[in-house]
Amino acid sequence: MRFLETNSPVTTGARSVSIRFRDLQIEMAHGAGGKAGRRLVEGLFAPLLYGNSPGPLGDAGIVDLGGTQVAITTDSFVVKPVSFPGGSIGELAINGTVNDLAVSGAKAEVLVVTFVLEAGLPSSVLEAEVRAMAKAAQAAGVRIAGGDTKVVEHGKADQMYISTTGIGRLIQGITIDPASVRPGDKILLSGPIGDHGITILLARGELDMEADLRSDTRSVLPMIEALAQAAATGIRWMRDPTRGGVATSLNELARDCGLGIVLQEERIPVHDAVRGACELLGLDPLHIANEGQFLAVVAPEYADVAMNALSLVPGGEAAQIIGEVREQPAGSVLITTSYGGSRIIDMLVGDPLPRIC
Amino acid sequence: MRFVDEFRKPELISKAAEEIRRLAGTDRHYRMMEVCGGHTHAIYRFGLKDILPENIELIHGPGCPVCVLPMGRIDDGLSIAKDPNVIFAAFGDMMRVPGTLGSPLEHKARGMDVRIVYSPSDALKLARLNPDRHVLFFAIGFETTAPSTALTILRAKAEGIHNFTVFCNHVTIIPAIRAILDSPDMRLDAFIGPGHVSTVIGCRPYEWIAKDAGKPIAVSGFEPLDMLQSIVMLLHQLKNGEAKVENQYKRVVPWEGNRAALKAMGEVFQLRPYFEWRGLGFISQSALRLRDSYAEFDAEQRFEVPGIRVTDPRAAQCGEVLKGVLKPHQCKLFGRECTPEHPVGALMVSSEGSCAAYFNYEHRKTALTQLSVA
Amino acid sequence: MCLAIPGKIVELMSSGDQESAMVEVVGVRRKIDVGLLSEDRPVPGDWVLIHVGFAMSKISEADAADQMRTLRMLGEVEGAMQEVQGYGLDSDRDDAPAEYTAPPITKAIQ
Questions:
Q1: Could you say which architecture CATH assigns to the domain A62-170?
Q2: Whether ipTM exceeds 0.90
């Protein structure tokens, strides 16, 4: 969910707010992290819930609680199948919220959890997920302070939906603000893209396809803490490219800062198996969800020291500078090939669909 | 990736681009049409227009099976699937194509059982796994895809499967090319031929383009080096005043085509006397339907099909863009009423339709002189 | 209609009439139908072009290599020709033919 970045108490001036969300019904596309989802948040939720002038929306809300800057975020996890190579819904639920806080410049301290369980769910499946959550929480250094459980009728939930809400204190020195992004800033990507989304697709078993691929779900906090230690003042913006992929996150940035982003195709790390699956299905890795990566915009003078710091963190070795910010094409993301060709990379409308043409 | 990466080598691409610049010179303007939507997609994906000289103009042809599908056909297919017993199965390309009452995905949101399949055999598999339901496979595609549908129907017959039908919208490429050449405002110098269709039909069916219409045609692969090499071949022909069919995609396209595929098609399908192409109107002998001997697998024979005809708004200039007379952004509705998110006309609905491709990949690009990133 | 990917046959399977094979594309394995290649059956190790889960055609490594050779030579013959022309051996002289036309070497390579 997208949050309003403000230190002032949030008021809901619902008196004369115009709703710009005109879709007649909710579609799957609205949850896919692309344009439709953005329309829903900006056109319906923001005007009614966030006050009159939402401003740029980030991964967490920052509030001032009696002098301490605290970040708060929430996320829900709906995934089929619930268990897949490299992880399961429980892990995603912990890591996803830890990561949303991390890319907002905060260290997650406490989480609360909501379970919506489908009647008929085997207890063994639930227990496995709870164990996975305990393990992930310990690895991420977060406490779970409580939660809620609801059970719905069989068929009303895909086995289980999990929602986590997390709070954390801001990491010293980091200020995330798209308005601080400047031409010349470098775009940093923590590692190979597409692993999670393709793993899920293959795990559904609808394709006669298999690959040696695992979800990349992990906490990105250690990498971000290392980055903060080495280059805090140089970090302008961060995001975790989950649903909608790198393409969506960077398009949001381009829109929010009004500048252009130019990427170099050959610099973007993609595992062979992800590439193969994408070619076979007609998908673009840039649109595929990731659960263990982050993007950062870093001032050019800090780029080397940032990359160095990441390379020393286990799991950070594959980080790459994949492009930079430019004046043009303003508000858009452009990707260039090594032989001088280029194309605009857009946000998707909804989920990436495979094609045969 | 083998047989892919070699044909994307940057230094060879630069070489080919240089050779094209040298051959094209500056004294003449060349208009080449790439017929197939896959080539349109490749041109944008690889940014080929950026490395071609100004005097080579690539015109996008009508070879996009989703784009040329009349909206009424989508309505017909979806109306069969209104029955809750029916599973509507189609390729991803079809899922967001709007019918009068919404796209397949929108129908899914309202409760219709709509499934994305990646192969006609997936649809048949659904029929096997759900013996109490009926699976309707909404088939689209040119001759590249038709043999796979045909073979699937043959398998269904051999297995004695009774809960599987095909709503057949397969179309053939030659009549479309003929329609382009017959068009009075057509001004084309050469064709970049559809490489994958040709794996099935071979290169012979294009001979009349060279002999009768006097236009060179190079049957082309889809990697950057394939397309650039095809352009080199066409430039050589044009400069020498020649017009013949050349097979650039030799590594994959047999001159005589794929006999087994043609046989399967011939066994299962016959030509419809005429078929409506969105943007081009009715074209005779341009589409396939199932033969009567396979009537049990023909959705149009087993179900009541409303036969809805939906005409596009007059303002949509799809026909002219399809024929290469207008560029996408020259259509009055482009980027305004008609965008990929809410497409009005045919060429915006599929991501490889010329308007959608242009919108997604091109039209927000400003002139960028230097693209070197440190 | 046009998305087709090269893949290597790693295993042939057949259950009754069904002609299937396992192909591999950079580590991704997919089951495909090879029924359209019944007149030229592929064997493990062959490369085929895959479209909507069906093998459409075998890929000729020889033709691919041929094409690479041609592409590498693009422009090189013309370059040599231009150099020869620059030696002033022909059209500058009064008794030279009015136009110098290059012999059709470039076409033979293709």
A1: 2-Layer Sandwich (3.30)
A2: yes
